[in-house]
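Cross-check.
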Amino acid sequence: MNKRPLCVLALVSLALCWLPHAAAQAPPKSRRQSSEPRIRVEVNLVSVLASVLDRNGRPVADLTPDSFELYEEGVKQKIERLEAETSQPLDLALMIDSSLSTFKELAFEREAAAHFIRQVVRPGDRLAVYQFSEEVVQLAPFSSDVPALQAAVRAMDAGTGTAMFDAVILGSRELSRGGRGRRRVIVLVTDAGETSSAGTYEEARSAALRSEALLYTVLIRPVKSESGRNTAGEHALVTITDVTGGAMYSPDSAEELDAIFDRIDRELRTQYRLGYYPEPRPPAARYRRLEVRVSGCVSAPTEKQASAETPACVVRHRRGYFTARAAE
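Predicted model, tokenized:
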């Protein structure tokens, strides 16, 4: 009789008996690791750009770290980094209202914008040109090619309607694609006569905040009387501009556009950049309120500063940010 099959059968039986026992003895730690997700919240350096201006709108230079205080949700933070005249490259979306209501000023707007492009774009910077009327159209993609960007501005033509909120939303989203380590800016030239956006005010405000873009609004008022203007659109822009830390300008005539563009360019080159690690650690995916205080200054709304009662200096900065989502 051949005993080999019996031996094999015995070995198989022994293996079957041992496997359940070995599984039962597996370390409980490995089972917990496979069934319980690990949640990790990254705490990164938060950067805040601050514009500090005197009562004539000129940048205040040579401030030291001791001049600044920074608060998140009312809690004072330790400023880890301060850069004067930040060297971060610039991504700028230039968005010009080409609706019929601005047609009278369009030719002057085109030339003033072309002059601004030549001034603001420096090596490493990128600018894109958009026009908006009933819809938002990109005329030139982000680049440093000044002649091509100027040609795009000069090619604008008039349309109907004003998709102002859509312009802010699209500009914010396009800037968000540019990567970290770059300043993000929207310059919006409009009469604020919102008529045809698919997006809402709240969507525009949220998009601007999430992109961390500064909004500079140049408000063209073809009609001086409030009864003939879309003041609701103006008030919406005031709020969005203020919460991003940008500025609003209301020229009395199109001839002032060159001076306003010069002022925006000068401010972009003389901003302070503050960096800190939030303490206590903030929760994930939340909006966090920010406040920057500068000795002797007040936090300013984004309107012109003209009266003698204006404080010695004002500080503008974004009013908050969204924390990152939890990593699993």
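Helices lie at 4-24, 28-35, 103-120, 146-154, 164-176, 201-211, 231-244, 257-268. The longest helix spans residues 4-24. Passed to J.P. for a second look.
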